[in-house]
Amino acid sequence: MSINTDRVTDNVRMECSICHRQFTKPKALPCLHTFCEECLRSYIASNPDSEHARGGVPCPACRQTIYIPAGGVSELPDNPLALMITHNFIGQDTGELPPSYQTLFGEKAFDPEASDVSFVDNPSVAKLVHSFGSHGSNEEQCTFLSGLAINEITNEIVVSDCSLNKVTIFSLKGQFKRSFVCNCSIRDVCVTAQGTLLLSVSRSGSALLREYHSDGRLVGVYGSHYHYENPYGVAMDSMQRVVVTSLEKNMIHLLTEQKRPSINFGSKGSGPNHFFQPYFVTVNGRDDVVVSDSGNHRIKVHGLNGQLKLIIGGQGHREGQFFYPLGLCVDKWDNIYVADSNNYRVQVFSPEGQFLSSPVKKTFQYGADVKPTNIALFGDNKMVVALRGSKFCQINIYQFQLSAHIRSYGGKDGGNCCSLLCCFSPSVAYDEM
């Protein structure tokens, strides 16, 4: 199945929603919305929102708090696909893409008519077995998919919507079961060992977390010292200790199994022990903390004591690189699955950080701004991917056998820098980085 070029260009919003004109120097925000550089600069300068004083500003489209780099709007990454659409997607005179976009999706030129975008029969991608969900405000619908988790006790898929502040629960086959609305702002969700739902929250006093039964009954509210944290990602380790990311402080918080403050690590920056917009987090089988350091376009692995163990990626479009990675998870072998959102794909890495596969690619075939934003696994070979775009919300279930897609790799086979030891001296203490 090939992409219909007309459908791609028709489905994307081809103008900046601030100036309502064709994009000029389009800049991508971590919330995945795109605006002209000058429009963003003017908007930020005139925004009276209190978040601005602390370095944040609400996105003009979704109102999610966005933290601007220290160097200003110009340091936000360009949106290459929006640039291509601005150039009429295909060169008007030559029928070719502008040269600077020839390697947009790796070393091979981006070809909108390529035949390798099938979700079913092509062996290089996962097999789509079911899709469900839609955009809207009805009980079973979503408008801004954020959290995604599997409740292995009840065999259910749990989705959080940070726009409607709603938790929606589906069967593993995608059948709607129930939903409930929270009276606070919610972000990510994870499932406790008891089957309750733990949500990262804001506008809930000073609370960082809320715990609910799956029918919406409140179990507890946790965190009394986190009023300005703007928490997002949440996960639990094997001992039921809680890990929460902070977009405001650009750090990771660890809480005890009683959900009391323990330690935190990280600060704003691009160095090896810094974060910039760490959106999502998961914990592997060794109780290492795996973070999508979205603003730095990389994945980081830390021990529970904050010690840096691994850095994967950097900004780019080639295998092993990222453009605003968001949701992530690990399998029983500790392979890392990443929703590489602005590259419109899912990437899989070994526990050591070697690139293994891109089982889902080119999600813009659903619409040019449709991107994977979160991912979860269940069973032996089922992969759940949340897709979000302009007036688009959908959840796909894929069948994917990782062993069938692993390719051989070597330390110098064009791979990305993966191991901490190849970049930094092991003798350097955490606090010195």
TrEMBL record:
It comes from the Eukaryota. NHL repeats lie at residues 129-173, 262-305, 309-352. Keywords: Metal-binding, Repeat, Zinc, Zinc-finger. Residues 16-63 form the RING-type domain. One of its GO terms (biological process) is protein polyubiquitination. SUPFAM superfamilies: NHL repeat (SSF101898), RING/U-box (SSF57850). GO terms for molecular function: ubiquitin protein ligase activity; zinc ion binding. PANTHER family: E3 UBIQUITIN-PROTEIN LIGASE NHLRC1-RELATED, PROTEIN LIN-41. This is RING-type domain-containing protein. It comes from Patella caerulea. The lineage of its organism: Eukaryota, Metazoa, Spiralia, Lophotrochozoa, Mollusca.
